[in-house]
Amino acid sequence: MRRFDPEPITRGPGILRHAEARTRLIAALLLLIGISVGRTAGTFIPVGLAILAGLVLARVRPRSLLVRAIAITALPLSFVLLNYLSGDTERALLLLTRSLLSAGVLLIVTAVTPLPELTGALSRLGAPEVLTETIQLVYRYLFVLTDQAIRMRDAVSCRGGSGSLLAAGGTVGVLFARSYARAEGVHRAMLSRGYTGSLPGTAGSRLQLADVLLVAVCAAAGFGGKVLDVLR
Amino acid sequence: MHIPDGFLATPVWATLDVVSLPIVGWVARRARADADESRTPLLGVLGAFVFAAQMINFPIAPGSSAHLLGGALLACTVGPAASMIVLTAVLVIQALVFQDGGLLALGANIFNIAIVGSLAGYLPFWLLHRNWRSGGLFLGGMLSVFLSGVCALTQLMLSGVGIPPTVMWGALAMFAVSSVVEGVATVAVVRAIDRISPARVQPGTGSAAAQWILAGIAAVLAGLGFLIASGAPDSLEAIAERTGIAVRETHFLPAPMANYAVQGVELESVARASAGIMGLVLVYLAVVAVGRALRRSA
To answer: Do B55 and A196 touch (CB under 8 A)?
Structure first.
């Protein structure tokens, strides 16, 4: 597993950041559902155009886009290849189109929505508080504990213990115990800062015309082609 | 195995979203109502631990290694309900920060990894912790990974993704190897935790009602399972029939429940149901006897 890289993939906040986080999430879901129910080029072209527009508006760096796209599509492409090799070219093409478009949607929404905004949006959409708080805390301590794990792994290697199952088990066991102790410390620190059982969330703004427009455009792009297909 | 978007058919992802999200919502709301507020930081830090633990490689053979996935370990340390919440949080972050797994497929991934993984990881530990703790942990680690993988594979096949038989068997073999590694790693980690902090890994007390429900499900499956079982011979019997070996089959001893039916009972359904129930009781008695013997020798 590689070291986590929190480097932003956009060149500053794009116009999509002006939309409320809930709207971005709902718009992405509409596009994804449109991709999932689509089967013909007529249904996929409007989604593709919407994604291209989204990438430009989100100011995504081309190099980062390429690196992420390769990482995201590695597993889907293996299934596409399997279907192609087994002679089902039509399904292979369908899977390829769907997975590329879906990856594009996910990439845009993650590029323009930092995690605190995302948990705030999930909370306002009705997700349980304990879940959104856990997500926030996991993300907060993810990099801290990962760095600690890497240091412990390197220390074990330096002592010549990297080839032993017992050493690996011991290392993870110590990491677990330290995580437990850290959680107790985190709780004490939170209490000292006035924690009363719920974390302060990100305040959401009121929905504006731009939000309605974004949802409408994504709904049209996601389902317009399908509706036209049905009408024909 | 995190399923990305674009692979599951709409009925499959929609059903799993409708099943998984309310389950996690219910578990989370109950956790909020039952637990004290110090639990939330613990869940968050343990979620980060799951990520971090994947940095430590477990050697499995010369030149190759694997890492702990942690579902069973979490379920055995903080309980299956808390484990579901932590794993769901991890899956949301993996989908929405690292683009590992889809957004529409989130329900499927939660079902496979958080719900099935946690329950399958916890159940053997809960059942065997008194008599054969290491066995329970090993089976828990193994089942959590294997069943999650099998669920993912089944959902892909239900969605019409073409998986040739050789690839499917290869994937199942890979899941089997990963699940054994997970089982061994879970035992190794819990032994290390026991040395550092002995009381940390304890199962919940579990209610008598839950045990009776489990026993009831087992009895229903054993007694009525033949109704949904395939009438076709299993793979070894089929091979034996095709190659002609089957005609040479001999029985050295008379069996009271040959072909999974009690001999002498005329009605076939009764004969099969009785055999199922009797088999269940015999297995239960055998497990109790072995457990007592192991406890005495320990």
So the answer is: no
